[in-house]
Description:
This protein is mainly α. It has helices at about 5-15, 20-30, 75-90, 95-100, 105, 115-140, and strands spanning about 55-60, 65-70. The chain is globular, with a radius of gyration of 14 Å.
Amino acid sequence: MTINEKQDEIIEEFSAFDDWMDKYALLIDLGNSLEPLEEKYKTPENLIEGCQSRVWLQADYENGKIVFKAESDAVIVKGIVSLLISVLSNHTPDEILDANLYFIDKIGLKEHLSPTRSNGLVSMVKQMHLYALAFKMKNN
Length: 140
């Protein structure tokens, strides 16, 4: 599934709800379905700077694609990182770097987050892009 197909799927899933409390519940469910991150990856190097809560992001390069794994100590944030992983994981560095993450605005996520959570979201996307850039440089 392409990045845009995955984004369209998320937009469709969130559009089923009008109330933001229901959307938050969906985010929490998504976060709860995220596979727990192994303790060995919960290192200071994997901690994302700029997040109010603690978010660890691990990236591995497998068969030309980046596989992201993450965890957070906050349920909403865990849901947000789970969305980002579902969209960007298992894609090539170029696909990730070229992606326009329009689903964030389409589902109204940014406008319904506190400023600190919104900054955290930007930091997560930035870190995923940095991993993609690093893997691209390393493997060219």
